[in-house]
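Supplementary Note 2. Why include the ligand at all?

Several targets in our set were suspected to adopt different conformations when bound, so apo predictions alone were not considered sufficient. For every target with a known small-molecule partner we therefore ran a joint prediction. The input for zinc ion is given below.
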Amino acid sequence: MTDDQTATSFDAHRCPNGHVSYPGHTRCPDCGEKQTETVDLADRTATVVTWTTSNATPPGVREPNHLAIVEFAVDGEAVRALGQLTTAEGVDIGDEVEPVYTEELREPGAGIREPDSQEWDGYRFEPV
Amino acid sequence: MNRVAIVGASMTTFGERDAWVRELLAEAGDACLADAGIGGDELDHLYVSNMASGEFEGQTGVPNALAHDLNALGAYTARIDQTSSSGGAGIYAAWQSVASGASDLTMLVGGEKMTHRTTGEATDVIASLTHPVEYKHGVTLPSFAGLTARKYLDEYDAPRESLGKVAVKNHQNGVDNPHAQFRKEVDLETVLDSPVVADPLRLYDFCPITDGSAALLFCPEEVASEYTDDYVVVSGIGGATDTHVVHERADPTTMGGVVDSSEIAYEMSDLGPEDVDVAELHDMFTILEFLQSEDLGFFKKGEGWKAVEEGVTDRDGDLPINTSGGLKSKGHPLGASGVAQAYELYQQLLGEAGPRQVDCEVGLACNVGGFGNCVTTTILERP
Ligand SMILES: [Zn+2]
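The joint prediction is reproduced in token form.
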């Protein structure tokens, strides 16, 4: 959660049949229909599915890099996201985390991907 | 549909090589032509499996370069990129070309030149296959392996040591492979004490960065004996994809592409997992050998780790896995790996594997791209 007015939303995408995915896709991965709505995950908490600390990181990525796959519950649907953890201290499978906005998750120009081809801000997960 | 035979095969030494991708491809291609005793000008189709020669060394258009270097001008050429499973996808393309009748003689050469890059750079080239929402967090393929390994150990109550035993076994096999990058045994203590790369996985849970190339020659089965008496047959082959966004999988410890591609291959060959005598699996990370051995149906879900503990997958076990040393000790030049898996099975099925030889009539290779994003499974048999 954040009070920062510059923070973007953390959008999962929903089709008319109620399937939710993060990120969005051109067609719903479950039923193939267009996804017509978004659901902001920024103000919700999630559960840690699994996590790791990576000590061998590419150019422009913090080292060590703590990462987790987390699961949000949205109207009875489970939606997962992968992201950096603010800390791995005391984190375990099943723990609760909340999203925290960060302007730059890795240094855009340092890696192989063309910097302008994607966004570099987003949400880290902080243990609650 | 015509059955397809493999009548020639080769691989270069894997490891840190001075040669660049064009030279590595030509080395394996030349050796494969020599193995079958044919000239390059006899090839109808020539495929090159390669993931990223442009990104690694600024060399594009490799199939055309190879055709010229092998005196194969006039052949139809194409580069096959399916990331880490480019080799398996190349086998699929070569098989299609002959099975369809479009080509009477197809050569596939897979290769990659990687060691001139730093580990971080090479890791980033590979990580660039991920979705932007995962890439921006600095995710790498090794970190997906760490995430999956923690989930697997937790879910199935498997001991950490069982992962280390995969590395120990595959290094033992690699000692007897003259083409392997690492030809030395490691003990379990060394594996378990090595530096943490992606917790809970350590250095010895990962394959190295490698240069190398491998090649195979395909023709219709009915004319195979014109080339050689010693050939094998592609009796089943399947390819499938799983989610691009890895975190979207309902079960992080199952690779849907492995399940789906193997079902297709089993059905085509009229065989099941119980008929397989020897397998080459994509052990880019130790955890992947467990996932594939379960998703291919060799062992029940969550019990792949018990097989390595009990010695079932050893060279003298009921189902030897990675007799070549696997990617773990043989090395993993991305585009070459899937081709080299088939080269090992070719040698095993023809009884030419020397000290690595096991008793076998049916071999299976599973080649995994991304983190299970795209997979090909190939079944080879003696005719
Ligand atoms: Zn839907």
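Residues 47 and 108 of chain B are 5 Å apart (CA to CA). Residues A 15, 17, 19, 28, 30-31, 33 surround zinc ion (CB under 6 Å). Comparable summaries for the other entries are listed in the accompanying table.
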